[in-house]
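Dock magnesium ion; give full complex structure.
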Amino acid sequence: MNSRIKKLGTLLSNQIAAGEVIERPASVVKELVENSLDAGAKKIELDIEQGGSRLIRVRDDGIGIHADDLILALSRHATSKIADLPDLEKIGTLGFRGEALASISSVSRLTLSSNTANQPSGWQVVTEGTDAEPEINPVAHPEGTTMEVRDLFFNTPARKKFLRTEKTEFDHIDELIKRIALSSFDVNFILRHNQKIVRHYRAATSSMEQIQRVDSLCGAAFVEHALHMEAQASELKLSGWIAKPEFSRSQADLQYFYVNGRMIRDKLLNHAVRQAYHDVMYGDRHPAYVLFLKLPPDQVDVNVHPAKQEVRFRESRLVHGFVLRSIQDALAHTHAGECAASGEHMPKTITEKTAALTYPIHRASMPVQSVQEKMAIYHELHEVAEKKNTTGNEVPPLGFALAQLKNIYILAENEEGLVLVDMHAAHERVMYEQLKKQISEQKIISQPLLVPLTVNLNEREVNHIERHQHLFHQAGFVIDRIGTLSVVVRAVPDLLRDGNIEQLVRDMAADFIEHQKSSRVMDSIHELLGTISCHAAVRAARRLTIPEMNALLRAMETTDHAGQCNHGRPTSMRFSMAELDKLFLRGR
Ligand code: ADP
Ligand code: MG
């Protein structure tokens, strides 16, 4: 290292700033679309080529940029959105740092064309990712702005190496536009990839149109199981859609939280939502929601993260409490809804008082099956257990069941002392290993459904299922695509015939997308088996008989890796008499 200090050139310092905010094409799209929204655009058209690495063009009908400001707009620390510290402390726009365009232009070839209401023509400025001072030229352009970003990272090869396939990069853009479209209902979005229209989200003003947009973005099933909610307490307002607990997800992949229109991930808010669902959802499931929190801009600091994905609340405890209570209230009424879904009385309890707060968007069109654990599972366990069975008077390693604790743990006694078993985790592991074995021996038993089941999903999920049909087939499923947004399930693994197939198919699709391990066939199959076993496994909170418990213990003893569930949690703990004695300070 040279010990003398030099001031960095503009280009290099902009490229350093770009390192923070411009990770991939989708980050460019985010900055450009946010600028369009800040400019009041009602129509935003995006043209993407080769996943965005060749071209990203964003055209809007916003207020435009004045000719005199064009070059300034591209320089760092130049913004029209704030002027002084008090402004910084109450930000009402998505952008404010004044560095996105400078960063983008330092790592690409950028053409900015724009026109405002009172100019005779539009103006254009072209940059080539160098330090050269750009010039501006007149150009025909309607009121609004077009940003054209070509050859992203062409001058920063190390960055370019991190780009994934065209398809993956486009998927990121698609997902981003989805997130933005979910919050900007009144804006018309058109997204093209390689000259083909891929998405068109029409402006949605009426509440019916809004629900349609949520439907097209989050899937019909979400809408079908969602409650609309609105809650207000002094200056805080929370609104949006939350899924009833029965529509829980295996991944946290349907969670959209916006604070003053800005999509964010926030531990505090996540925690509040999780806690609200706590009593009505199993620990390893994830709720689905689209929520909008509005509060005065001076109550929230958005200047805490370079890509502005996190915020800090001035009154965080107040916000946490408000979000928690509002969702809890809304969910409280779904208990009645659950009865309704299982075919009994419709929710008489959703009366005038609560209707103001929540209303079901649709009634569940189909009875929602609870996960039914049938004795069949235990017969299978018995079979496994019987293969090795225990001869003579020997006490087996996991001992014999004494009782069940809170319907979650099995208490058993073995030669050394006490054995505690997490019933769901253990059963899940046993199922998983059994399925794995069946697959390797090609003995998976597939059971045709008497009535094929149609499952509505989003397009991405349907694509994934279609692309990996052979894997599902190996796992005992027969699933066909029957439209852009639905699949039909014709057969399922025998083990699952009584389970909630619809939920399972959703989970498998979501898990697949999450793990993206599609190229590694065996991994993917195991991923599927994991999801299947989790569904097939007996739920915590189900009471088992002593023979059922013993069957599970015996099955665990003959199963590989039975010491841990598929999620890596232990399935059992043992306490020897000596350890127990120590706990009670009992000398022997
Ligand atoms: P920021 O959004 O943080 O202000 P940017 O570098 O993204 O910084 O943009 C700089 C400025 O350029 C903005 O403050 C705005 O005045 C102007 N600008 C950028 N994009 C647009 C657009 N699509 N329409 C109108 N003005 C824009
Ligand atoms: Mg900006």
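Observed: Residues 31, 35-36, 39, 60, 62-65, 73, 78-81, 95-101, 145 surround adenosine-5'-diphosphate (ligand 1) (CB under 6 Å).
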